[in-house]
Amino acid sequence: GTQGEEAGLSERGMRKALKRLELWMMRLADRGWGGYSKRKGIAPGKDYYRMGFFLDLVSSVVIVIGYSSLVGQRKTIGQSLNSNRFSGDMVNCFFVQLLFIILDRIAYLFHSLVLKVAIHYASVGYWLAQILVVWPKESSFLLQQNTPLRLFFLLKLGSFLVSAMQVHYGYPMGGRVRQFHQTPGVYHGMLFKAYRAIPFAFEMQSLLDWACNTTSLDVWESFTLDDIYATMYIVQCDIIYRKGRRRGEPQPLYRKLFSGSFPFLGLIAVLFGPLYLFSSANPAQISNNVVQASLSTKINGPLGSYNLFSIPSVASMREVTEEEYAAMLTAEIVQSDDKQSSAQRIEVNPFSDDLFDISPPALYQLITTLNDTERYPLMTVEAFYSFTRPGPSTLKTIQGSRKLKLTRQQRLDLAEVLTPDSGTKQVYMKDLFPMFIRLPATGEIGVMTGASTDATIRLLEDRKSHVSFWSVCARPSPNIPGLLAADSTPNDDVPGTSSSSSSSSSCH
């Protein structure tokens, strides 16, 4: 009997011990989200994912917007937008940062400390190499000499610290966690709404979570469930927001400012901001003045084309004076929103830079064609003008041309000029060059007014070297200065800006 009683007590004690163990494990699982258990030596882990994700997200934004400052370059994102090309190194760094964010999410979903440790060391090694070695070497500026790089380094140090704390404490115990829905509140709700506003961020998270978790739901059901959770969390945050005031109480001033006035001003900025950025009213607009100009002409006939002269150099190039610009405004050569600093006056050299070199058979054919006005009734002279500007990078050099039909007298005069040992060595060309031209940022050169420059071209011969070359004497109207015009370029410090104002140049 005594042995039976002892066996019963032993069985009851075993059941109580198992029951206590079961209750303890249940409490441990329930407390796994919040940190340490009170039982000594048990560390179910802490959740630092949200903090680490936020720091990595800010790092990604800094890389895209301020990469040129990090590497010590003057090129900004505005220049990248204007040239339709981003830096390849910036894209690579952004991709690596995004890859670390994705891998960190995978490690969090699987609660894999091994993968987390590997990601931590890889991230620390990569970014320390970029910040301390690669970027200072490219820019010739040390870390202590580059303030944006130092701030980015502090940001990454914060990310490394959060990652190290996650490795130290381990991941929390339990199943899938919706880390963005744990702590409802006013500011948490605002941050979550901002996170959902990031294009494709919430969708990518849902896809990755569905791919890494064991679930019987298909991907669309998982999307629906995540959206329900997000909506309920936002509603919960809104309820907490409304608890701060009594029924019938007027809304406080700070809520009207942050929920009404500031969003209204933001919408106004969204509507009118692009209009100012893409107009001449943009205060950040800079001039895009011409730095090089050239002229050339050729004769077009039924038997071919013949180059006459080319002048790729200029005699002078300057901005117009106030008096000249006022005269241009009076004559409606420029528009009211144009800037004087963008107006130029250019004079090309009066002589060609190349020699007039043509074979005797070709010269004889050209002279015969010019004289035979009945057999070859149509011959033209074509003037080409080219201008080079600092930008845009896709169209630094812009070209234009003007084609005029040669009159019978002009053809005979030109044939006489080309005939060896003739007494006539000049020919008068009316309206050969346009006086006022606008150079657009894109597209073709446009003539601003109908005024043109008449030109007298001469074929000169150097008797010492026995070579011939052309000279040009332009005769613009004495009342209006001979000017050409070129569109300005936007300031590259402002992303995505453009301009409609013009600059002017002269060539006579």
UniProtKB/TrEMBL annotation:
Keywords: Membrane, Transmembrane, Transmembrane helix
A Pfam family recorded for this sequence: Piezo_cap
Listed Low complexity bias regions: 498-508
Coiled-coil region list: none
Segments of this protein annotated with the region Disordered: 483-508
Keyword hit for Transmembrane: yes
Annotated Piezo non-specific cation channel cap domain residues: 332-477
Gene Ontology cellular component terms for the protein in this record: membrane
Entry-linked InterPro entries: Piezo (IPR027272), Piezo_cap_dom (IPR031334), Piezo_THU9_anchor (IPR056770)
Molecular-function GO terms, alphabetical: mechanosensitive monoatomic ion channel activity; monoatomic cation channel activity
GO biological-process terms attached to the record: cellular response to mechanical stimulus; detection of mechanical stimulus; regulation of membrane potential
Domain Piezo THU9 and anchor, residue spans: 46-279
Transmembrane stretches, start-end: 48-70, 90-110, 117-136, 151-171, 257-278
PANTHER family per record: PIEZO-TYPE MECHANOSENSITIVE ION CHANNEL COMPONENT
Protein name as annotated: Piezo non-specific cation channel R-Ras-binding domain-containing protein
Source organism per UniProt: Lotharella globosa
